[in-house]
Please model this.
Amino acid sequence: MTGQTSRLLILLAILIGTGIAYAVGMTDFSGLAAGPFIGLPQIFHFSYPTFEIAGFVQSEIFSDRESCVLHRARLGELS
Model:
């Protein structure tokens, strides 16, 4: 069975299950009408990102130090 067939079977199972639940009275679509027709996710849900200059400077210092050490190790200067 291919991936597309298995996904279609999952969709079919969801539709059949929803239909059976609706026939037995176990569904509630009342909240569906209250929502927007098209919904978009909220960007930066908790807060906007902040960039601290200290973190940038620190990362630059340590990245230069590591590259320098790695470069010297490749040249055989470190023992």
